[in-house]
Specification:
heterodimer; A: 392 residues; alpha+beta; eight-stranded antiparallel sheet; five-stranded antiparallel sheet; 24% strand; globular; B: 480 residues; 21 strands
């Protein structure tokens, strides 16, 4: 069911965004939030809203403090544009979710790409999460608008700071249900001097998982350590960055060999490999389930995917897997996941999303606390209602 | 509920011998690591299990009595200072390591386990990176409450980057499981660093990581702190992320050298400790580069640790800096501020200027990578008015940090000591947003009241009619 939007607001200032939100809330209206529009299908389908608030004109890199390796980005800034600017100083924001890199806009056939606000609000990430953490770990401060028109700041612009509550973490992954993210302060990292990737394949999920475990326990400081699985065969990929990446990748390759994997190889031309991993996190026509499990349950996740005809990409050492299946295989996949694993539905045809709760079962006590948080931050219930866990 | 009824409930919860009410016993718990604040609670409860903590919190809730959780009591912002009408919950008996699971790269512990014991439990292959100077004694529960850092957090991150699961008791006695990867709000992220005001953690799941393959450590001596600061900027600018990068100024070198006789140059204006760790080839390539950059920045002398003993001595000297100040001053006040690293020279000059105005000595120890300054304001309590002047000077230093775009605290927390500076950093709408979180977790304000927020404030009911709060009735707090 398509939502009928009557008003699309594109505020150019924080104040305008806050006052639009406050006016809508005071009128008893709800507001949908939109950044680059690359993840609008995520979450539950909430009740229809008549107002859409787009962050597209809040698109400036307000500060890039090269010497301090920090930056302040307005929420509507496309990550690809910000990265371009940081790269001029040999720096990067260590976040690499899909549809946020060079070429994303042309592939999606629009002038859109993921914005920093949308990435933070959905807690999206990519392979370098292995080394640098998720959005929550890189955001050091945040400015938000609440539905009563308040503009509030938390954190700061320095990478170390424990003053006040860490509201940026609360808003990261909140799907816009607490308020509108207006800007984020982030920590930057140096762009690595060089990269090289060791990879190897196998048809046995246990062998792949054991190899990934051996690499995770090795002191190689990988930038990324991923798994891929499709049609009965999988790959482990480990990316080394820094002063002598090829030598380290060769050492990683030896670990893969000792683990008994096939087709062990090393390449310094590895960008395409990792672009494929990112692409596997999205599904155009099927259903994509984000699975969280203990890393030791990885083989079980691969077997579940195989049983349901699915494919997997994932962060082997973090227990985060993205499983894509045909829409009608979603229920069997959920049933086949190993004990302790939880799944959140991301991409799926609208009828599939409407039929199930994309967030799955929630712990009652934690959910009650989340409802209390929502009630305090957005007592009017104006911000993106109904899209989040438990119908928040 | 009367005090004696509450004490009976506490005794029923933890056992009679673990509830202290005698004034002498209570006095031990009157202060944490910040001794200038002292407050005797009504009782100290020392529960031995998570279930006993739940029962204690429940009893406090039913009695409408506030409580403060305390770990090892090493905090430097008065975060574990008791409240006069309340109960202090000491967690030192909860020190079991519940599970070590290196396949999943994690460990599950009780809150009273010391920071160092965690690294020891996962050694020799793994370690827990956050390493506050007090790591031998400070507890992980306190680290979680304060989001503790340490010398290695520039590269490895803070406590918040390593906590993956918590069992938390809310102030109404509800037990809630917070999991970093569970769908929904990142309540775990909001809880870590909340200084005991949102609840008390009774079980903590942490990520641990492989021990680096190689570690190389040097100490470079410079004539001026500004040169050492330039070296830091060059090192970081070259894309090098040292495991640790620490600076000491002339006064702190003198104090630390007197304590450890490590052979530090007493004529140096600054000592810069740089430690690189990581894969062998990465370390070796970077280490030569760091040496070259230190020379270029004007280092008088560079000493490289040739053995683990020499490395340990470098770190012992650095860690001794605080305690060793006692050798050159009768008393000192430890400040904890953060600045953007590029503003170092300017802020140090400002601190010098202020110290001159106040006629007091200030030594500086600095986590240089992340801009976390620890000025030590020296004073003599025997001289009338000097402690007050020292505190005033420390306050001006923290304001100088905020004016430079930094923070009032990088790792010690706000607690009771720094809440007066919160308005320097946060406007009223910011504080009001903090209060919304506080109220969602603890609507009755029973968990560590009077900390973090600059003025006491109460939570309105959401939704529902207005009801007068007991603290409001007593005139202790007002509604915002």
């Amino acid at each position: 069911m398509e939502l009928q939007t009557i008003l699309a607001a594109r505020p150019a200032t924080f104040e305008a965004a806050a006052s639009m939100l406050a006016r809508a809330a005071a009128d008893g209206q709800t507001v949908r939030l939109r950044g680059g529009g690359t993840k609008l299908g995520w979450g539950a389908i909430g009740p229809e809203s008549r107002i859409e608030l787009c962050t597209g004109r809040l698109n400036k890199v307000r500060e890039h403090n090269t010497g301090d390796l920090t930056a302040v980005l307005e929420a509507g800034t496309r990550l690809v544009d910000a990265q371009e600017q940081f790269a001029t100083a040999g720096q990067m924001l260590a976040l690499d979710p899909p549809l946020a890199g060079a070429g994303a806009a042309s592939r999606s056939g629009t002038d859109l790409g993921a914005t920093i606000g949308g990435i933070v609000a959905t807690a999206d990430s990519g392979p370098v999460r292995h080394r640098y953490g998720a959005a929550r770990d890189l955001v050091v401060g945040m400015t938000v608008a609440l539905s009563d028109g308040t503009i509030s700041q938390s954190g700061g612009k320095v990478i170390k700071n424990v003053a006040g509550y860490d509201l940026a973490k609360l808003f990261a992954g909140s799907f816009g249900t607490l308020g509108v993210i207006l800007s984020v302060s982030v920590r930057l990292h140096p762009v690595p001097a060089g990269t090289a990737t060791a990879f190897a394949a196998d048809g046995d999920p246990e062998a792949l998982a054991a190899a990934a475990r051996a690499l995770a326990a090795a002191p190689f400081e990988f930038d990324a350590l991923d798994i891929a699985w499709k049609r009965g065969r999988g790959t482990v990929l480990a990316r080394c960055c820094g002063a002598d990446p090829l030598r380290r990748a060769n050492r990683a390759a030896r670990v893969l060999q000792e683990a008994g994997l096939d087709d062990v190889d090393v390449t310094a031309e590895d960008d395409a490999l990792w672009e494929l991993q990112r692409a596997g996190q999205r599904s155009r026509n099927g259903a994509l389930l984000l699975v969280s499990a203990r890393p030791s349950a990885l083989a079980g996740v691969l077997r579940a995917a195989e049983r349901c005809g699915g494919s997997v990409v994932g962060r082997a050492a973090l227990g985060v897997s993205y499983v894509e299946v045909e829409a009608d295989a979603l229920e069997p996949l959920l049933a086949a996941l190993p004990a302790g694993a939880s799944g959140v539905l991301r991409d799926a045809p609208a009828e599939v999303r409407a039929a199930i709760d994309p967030w799955g079962e929630q712990d009652g006590t934690a959910l009650e606390l989340m409802r209390r948080v929502k009630a305090r931050f957005d007592p009017a219930g104006a911000c993106n209602p109904g899209v989040f866990v438990g119908g928040i | 509920m009367s005090t004696s009824a509450l004490v009976s409930r506490l005794e029923a919860a933890c056992g009679e011998e673990y509830v202290l009410t005698h004034p002498h016993a209570l006095a031990t718990y009157g202060s944490d690591g910040l001794a200038q604040y002292h407050q005797i609670p009504v009782a100290v409860a020392r529960p031995g299990t998570a279930q006993e903590v739940h029962a204690v919190v429940r009893a406090c809730y039913e009695a409408g009595v506030p409580w403060v959780a305390r770990g090892a009591g090493t905090g430097l912002s008065g975060g574990a200072l008791p409240v006069a009408e309340g109960v202090l919950i000491a967690l030192s008996r909860l020190r079991r390591i519940l599970q070590v699971d290196l396949d999943d790269g994690c460990i599950v512990v009780e809150p009273g386990v010391t920071n160092l014991a965690i690294s020891r439990a996962v050694a020799p292959t793994h370690f827990f990176p956050p390493d506050p100077s007090s790591q031998i004694v400070c507890s992980i529960g306190g680290n979680v409450a304060e989001n503790s850092g340490g010398a290695h957090c520039f590269k490895y991150g803070f406590t918040t980057n390593y906590v993956v699961g918590l069992e938390v008791v809310l102030s109404d006695g509800t037990v809630v499981e917070l999991d970093r990867d569970a769908p929904g709000y990142d309540l775990l992220g909001a809880f870590v660093g909340s200084e005991g005001t949102l609840g008390v953690a009774t079980r903590i799941r942490l990520r641990v990581i492989p021990v680096p393959e190689s570690t190389r450590t040097l100490v470079a001596f410079f004539e001026h702190t500004s040169q050492a600061g330039d070296a830091v900027t060059e090192i970081v600018g070259a894309g090098i992320v040292p495991g640790a990068i620490e600076m000491m100024d002339r006064l702190s070198i003198r104090a630390a050298e007197a304590a450890t006789h490590a052979g530090y140059r007493l004529d140096a204006g600054a000592a810069l400790i740089v430690e690189l760790d990581g894969p062998e080839e990465e370390c070796t390539a970077r280490f030569d580069h760091v040496m070259a950059l230190c020379h270029e920045a004007g280092a008088q002398d560079i000493r490289v640790a040739k053995s683990e003993d020499e490395r340990a001595l470098i770190w012992k000297t650095r860690r001794a800096a605080f305690a060793a100040m006692g050798r050159i001053a009768p008393a000192y006040y430890v400040q904890d501020g953060v600045i953007p690293r590029t503003r170092l020279s300017e802020v140090l000059a400002r601190i010098d200027e202020l110290a001159g105005e106040y006629g007091l000595q200030v030594a500086n120890v600095f986590h240089a990578g992340d801009g976390n300054l620890h000025p030590l304001v020296c004073y003599d309590a025997a001289r009338p008015g000097e402690p007050e002047r020292a505190e005033e000077l420390a306050g001006l230093i923290v304001r100088a940090c905020v004016e430079a775009g930094g923070s009032i605290t990088g790792e010690h927390g706000v607690g009771v000591d720094k809440k007066r500076y919160m308005p320097d950093m946060f406007a009223e709408p910011d504080l009001e947003a903090f209060q919304r979180l506080r109220c969602a977790f603890d609507p009755h304000g029973l968990a560590n009241p009077g900390k973090v927020m600059p003025t006491p404030r109460l939570c309105g009911e959401v939704p529902g009619p207005y009801r007068e709060h007991p603290l409001e009735r007593a005139g202790v707090a007002e509604r915002f």
